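Example record used in the benchmark description.
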Amino acid sequence: MSYQIYFPFKLVENREIKDLPAEGILDGYRATLESNPPFYALSVFGIETLNIAQEIFTQLVTAFYWMATESGLSLETVRELQQVHEPPDPVQTAERFGLQRNRVDVVIDGGRPAIIEEGKIVVKMTGQPVSFRMGYAPKRIFDALGHGIALKSPNAKIRSAIDLYCFAQFFSERAARFLLLWSVVEFLAPKAQAIPLAEAHVDRLVEITREVAASTQGDNKKILNELIPRLGGLKTQSHTSRVRHYVDSILAKDGVSSHRELADEVASLYRTRGQLTHDGNIEIADALARIEEIIRLVLKAAIRHQA
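Model output (C-alpha cells):
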C-alpha cells in the first residue's frame, strides 16, 4: 500500500503555470503539476506509509512558503489536510455523479489538500475556472519547491508575514497593495528598543509638561495632558528606525552586500507610506515595485534564519 499527496493552490489572476501537465521529482518522489480549474494541483506519488506522507505534507507547506518568496509567485492555498470521504456505496456514488466509471472510492474537496491511498478512484469537487495571463514554467515551480522542502519550517510569525505578502498580491489596486505589503515588514520587525540616553531627558520633559498643564486652563490644559503619554514614546527608537534596523540586520545575516542601502531605502519608502496615508492620491508605481522586491529578500532571509 502506498499513498499520494494532493495539494491544490490558486495564483493571482494575472499569473499562470505554462505547459501543463508536467512531471518532476520532489524529495525523491515522483510529482506532477496539473491544472484543475480553478486550482492548480501538485501531486506527490509513491509514498510508503501514511506517517511519511503526513511528514512530507508538512515539508510541502514550508516549500510553498519558500516558493511564494523565492519566485514572487504569490498563491492562495489551504495548509491543513482535509478529512477524506469514502462513500459507503462506491458504485451508487459513481451513478449519482453521472461518471463514466464503475465506482468512486474517495470524494474530496478539490480546493483542499489531501492524502489519498493510491489505487483509489477519486472524485474532486471544484468550482468554476478562472483566467490567468502571465506564465511560469513548471521547472521554476519544481526548483523552488525542491529548495523549500529542505528548509526548516518557519515560525508562526514568519508564516503570518508570508500569508500577508501573498494576500497583498491579490489586490489590483496599487495603494492597497502597497499598504498591505508595508504591514509585512512592520509585523516582522521586533518591538521598539528603549534608548537609555533619552529616558532621563524625556522624564524631565514630562515633568515640565505636567507643571505647565497644572497652571493652565481650558483647552490648552487638555492638550497638554493628552501630550504627556505621547512623550513617553520618545524613550524608544522610532518606528522608522525599528524597521530600518530589522531590514539591515536580517539582510546582513543573509549575506546581502547592499543591506545598508536597502535598509535606508526602506526608511525612505516609509515616508512614502506616510504621504499615501495622509495625502491619499500619490503616484506609487515605482515605490510599490521596490517594496515588493525588498520584502521578498527580507522574507527569504527570515525563512533561512528564522528571524
